Amino acid sequence: MTTEKHSIVLASNNPGKRREIEQLLQPAAVRLYPQQEFGIDSIEETGLSFVENAILKARHAAAGSNLPALADDSGLEVDALKGAPGIHSARYAGAAADDQANCAKLLQAMAEVPQGHRQARFQCLLVYLRHAEDPTPLICQGTWEGQILTAPRGDNGFGYDPLFWVPGQNCSAAELDPGTKNALSHRGQALSRLLPALLEKLG
After folding, report:
1. What is the C-alpha R_g of the chain?
2. pLDDT, tens digit, for every residue of 166-193?
């Protein structure tokens, strides 16, 4: 595969994540390749935190592609559930669960939680590695505070967005237009912190 000067492999096969990250990385003028273009399978996420899993994924993608790698590990923390689903957000309803199944399980777990006690937040940890053995990865975090709705709303976004009420916007994350979501979201915050350091490394 022919790659460009500032090519980066994205350690994810999630099309929603790729779309958001590509939009937010436009100022860096990089070409983002999803890892499946190199035949790289997802690695088992054995870390105990978002940052550990992000580093695992970035090293795996960098080793398999011989390119710098960017990995995102993100998820939803719900106070009433003691931080669950947390690092297990993508697999909350099982290893092969889709967004609909995960949202359904969350609604079931929150069924008896009253209004005023449904606080939650999205967390995003981004890791950038120059190569698989990079000892000093760039690590940036973003946090997006909100509440869990009692029923899904909206058709935009992905994951738990239809259940995540955004204070100040009077809507769910899945009802936001992409530009507004990117300006507010956990991933947008993390990327806005990563971008200046990434531009410096890329020259």
Report:
1. 17
2. 999 999 999 999 999 989 999 999 999 9
